[in-house]
Each structure stands twice: as C-alpha cells, then as structure tokens.
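User: Second chain of the day. Same drill as before.
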Amino acid sequence: MVDFTKEKGNLSETEVATVTTNIVSNRFDRKSRLLTAEQYTFVFENASRFGNAYFTVLARKNNVGYARLGLAISKKCAKSAVDRNRIKRQFRESFRLNQHSLPTVDIIAMCKPAALKIDKKAIRYQIDKQWFFMKKKFSKDLGTSIGQKADHSAPLPFTRSNQN
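Assistant: Same format as last time:
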C-alpha cells in the first residue's frame, strides 16, 4: 500500500482510504473468468458474434457488473499446445488491460487456423480490434457513445513465416 500522506500533505484517514480504493486493478482474477459449464452455456445459447479471419468472439450481456472472459481454443484450430497457449496468453493479456473499458458482458474467445500464420503483434491487433467492435455494438444497444472511432481499415502488415 502506498502512503499518500507524504505525497498529498496531511490527508485524513478517510481521504487516504478513498484514494487507495479508487485505484483500478488490472489483475485477471478468478472473478474475471468464466469458470463453469453453466457460464459457458449461458453465452453459447444467445450470444452476439464478432469475428474475422483469425478469431471468433462470442459475447452476451451479464448481470455481474463487469466483463468476464472464457477461452475455447480447440485442437482443431491449433494442434500444438504451444500454439494454443500462445493464443490464450495473448487473449488474457489483452483482456486484462482492457477489462475496465469493456461493456458488462461474458466473452468466449475462439480461434481459427489462420491465427497460427500471424505473429504476436498481429494477434494482439486483431484481438484489440474485436474489443473495439464489441464496445461499439454494446454501446449502440445502450444508446451511449464510445468516443472517437479507431481506424481499423489499415492492412495487416504482420505475418508469421511457415515453420513446417
């Protein structure tokens, strides 16, 4: 815990407590994950689908007040455990950094075989692109604005060489 009394002068204990509780955590806790089969089924039953040539992301509004992530990276998509884990790591990291800006939805991320042909930067770019479209869709449903639109029309410059 940071001692804010030295930085901010003479704050009262309640002011210090308020400052420390308002700090946003970017941790990927258990509560930020879809854990049970029922939670996955809830999303699969009636989800909004977002996708491109590399990934499919399913999302459904939830009642818990924050976004949660579930990963369904199959052997059909990536035969090697190393490749599956690499994609999962990228999804978890991107979600961890963006979770507070995402709408309150349950998300299931799935990959397509083409995802193995692009490098780490391109994977991250494509995942962030999915978050953008998700925010746009769910903010439209709520009748709110998400701010400036990002330019995602640029061609994808990153490709991964075949390692066969």
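The helical segments are 4-8, 13-21, 37-45, 81-98, 120-142.

User: Great, on to the next one.
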